[in-house]
Design goal:
The complex is a heterodimer of chains A (156) and B (240). Chain A has a single domain, classed as Beta Barrel (OB fold (Dihydrolipoamide Acetyltransferase, E2P)). Chain A is built from 3 helices and 10 strands. In chain A, strand 1 and strand 2 form a beta hairpin. Chain A is globular. Chain B has 2 domains: 72 residues, no CATH class; 161 residues, CheA-289, Domain 4 (OB fold (Dihydrolipoamide Acetyltransferase, E2P), Beta Barrel). In chain B, 23% of the residues lie in helices and 31% in strands. In chain B, the strands form 2 sheets. Chain B has a 5-stranded mixed beta sheet with strand order 8-1-2-10-9. The longest helix of chain B has 13 residues. The chains are: A mainly beta (156), B alpha+beta (240).
Chain lengths: 156, 240
Amino acid sequence: MQLLTFTVAGQTYAIESRRVIEVLPLVPARPIPHMPGFIRGIFTYRGRLVPLVDLALLLAVGQLQERLSTRVIVVEYAAAGRASQQLGLVAENVISVCSAEDAEASLPSLEFGSAPFLGRILRIGGRTIQLLEVEKLLPGDVSSGLFPSISTVVPQ
Amino acid sequence: MIDRARHETPAVTAPMPECWRVIGVAGDRSCPELQAFVHCRNCPVLADAARSFFDRPAPEGYLDAWQAILEEPAETAGAADTSVLVFRVDHEWLSLPSAALVEVTPSRMLHSVPHRAGTALAGIVNVRGQLQLCVSLHAVLGLPGGPQAAPPQADSPADGVGRLIVLERASGQATERLVVGVDEVAGVHRVGKADLRPVPSTVSQAAARCSSALFEWQDRTVALLDEVRLFEALREAVSS
């Protein structure tokens, strides 16, 4: 399993690279009022409007530093029982990939109700990497708010 | 497929100690680390340089340029294409969706099946250690010629233009394979959905029954065979 690694507040995280559509520079997003803080806004991705999630605020670990390596990871987001949508994730140091098969040690995902998206923890090449599960990234109400069911029947 | 070159992604430049240009592979190769790393791209110094290169604010205008790129809708032209294998049977140029293919292999000796000589079943052929039925596409499509189980095939050179195409279809849980012999294979090509024309209803040849569309390829009209109908026709020909 290939992983796209990135850091949030100095710690390394990863998502499965098969979920990744594209990695982009940190393009400006239009803020949406009354959204949860971790929704940076909506940005235009190849002619479509895609919500942008700030992983530092979602993980509640501080502020992202806006550098060249702070990038938008466009992922395929399929919440339970819904059609697949595109979602942008902002993280730092989005510059490398690694293979989960190279893990020297691993810990199964820790079960905490408040953060269901936290996945396995792997030790790869001297770095401790925690996997994030893309489908569980957004709380249910935020997910259904961002992607109302009407959008699943509109032909693309 | 996104055409990056057309958009001309904004360039980013930065000054840095470029040891790889001086003593590395782009310089005089005198760096002692090259013994261990062979190429600068394997060296942690270059990796660190790359990291620090990205570890700074975006240059003026860079993000705006990217935003302009992302305003444009994705090019979906590639999605409407189908990939087909173009081949020749006698004088007819035909094609099959490459999804239905397992492999194309040089013609080889066919083992004839007793009491089935002269039927559409050309013989049995060994493909990677598995014996497969070889069906004469010529007979099924009503064209002259075709693969023969006769000895002349045995001593014909393997690098001739004749090829065997291994087809596969899923039938329930299992997959079913059949081999057909063709006279020449012209490779895999992409065909846009818009370039496909319907088969004229006046065509009453056997080939037309299995064809789903026609398209122009290198000044020739090539029939796109429907893999499901073709497979049915081949099975029918074998069992009759």
